[in-house]
Structure prediction request, 109 residues.
Amino acid sequence: MKAHRRIISIILSAVVLFSAAAPTASAEIRYIRGDADRNGEVESVDVTLILRKLIDMPVPTFDERAADVDGNGLEIYDATFIQRYLVGFSNPYQIGKTVVFDEYELPVV
Prediction:
């Protein structure tokens, strides 16, 4: 009987040890680059929200990660890049594309 308890104890210890060391699935983060209000589209409203956020005005829904299109932190340049995208100028920052990444990877567009 004691041998069975000892074996069960060893097996349970191994299960706990290996389950704690096993990598867990990280949360995948998806957003559209430039979609500051997360409504699924890049529009002039997103530019307005960025400008409001920069001057500390209240913004009801705001995703700073999506609004920071060039990756240098939220700046007026982000609003300018979105405006340029909206009128069809060059798009070096992949504005309007879905970005997917998790906490262990760099973003993939």
About this structure: The first helix runs from residue 2 to 21. The radius of gyration is 23 Å. The mean pLDDT is 84. Residues 36 and 67 are 5 Å apart (CA to CA).
